[in-house]
Amino acid sequence: MENTSGVGVLDKVTSILGTLEAGPATLGGLVAATGMARPTAHRLAVALEHHRLVSRDVQGRFMLGPRLGELSAAAGEDRLLAAAGSVLAQLRDATGESAQLYRRQGEVRICVAAAERLTGLRDTVPVGVTLPMKVGSAAQILLAWEEPERLHRGLQGARFTATALSGVRRRGWAQSVGEREVGVASVAAPVRGQSNRVVAAVTISGPIERLSRHPGAQLSQAVVEAAHRLTEALRQP
């Protein structure tokens, strides 16, 4: 390893990640590329896998893990939030319902931006509030495109099923009726980052009496368009 920082273990970890940037590698491939002893390379690769910085493909080879995408998305959060205010306001005005933007953090989702309906009965979700990943259309969006192991774990105890998430992936949007709160319905769509990974969920929510028991039929197009505008904002050079 030529580029050293003086902190040996970090240099070795960086060397492993740099090797995997070129594509999946076996343990032998990591040893050959990094010059590490086989036990050292194995120990560090497994530790990185534990923290989801490294994962494995179907052949058991090491590859870059999903946590790197999450960190990359977090680095772009300022751009996302800068665009969210006007996009959510436009979505609220177009649908007449409260609009929110959620991001996943561990086993919960956080409302990071919102535009409330100005008058009448509304679903109010304060910015900064945490909600469970087991209920609601935003939770469905934030889970539907996860890697299989994390998706399976997220479905345990959820109010929605694997079949429902399959439908979400096929349609490109999710809906919920009375999942998070009795009498409230919502529709959500994914915001994607540079790597096409889902980094946030745009939603509108309101009383079932206005949104109906099939809210996606009339409102999904507006929500998907808002999500596309935020995706474009994140992908600008």
TrEMBL record:
Coiled coil: none annotated. It comes from the Bacteria. This is IclR family transcriptional regulator. Residues 67-236 form the IclR-ED domain. Keywords: DNA-binding, Transcription, Transcription regulation. GO terms for biological process: negative regulation of DNA-templated transcription. One of its GO terms (molecular function) is DNA-binding transcription factor activity. Residues 7-66 form the HTH iclR-type domain. InterPro entries: GAF-like_dom_sf (IPR029016), HTH_MetabolicPath_Reg (IPR050707), Tscrpt_reg_IclR_C (IPR014757), Tscrpt_reg_IclR_N (IPR005471), WH-like_DNA-bd_sf (IPR036388), WH_DNA-bd_sf (IPR036390). PROSITE patterns: HTH_ICLR (PS51077), ICLR_ED (PS51078).
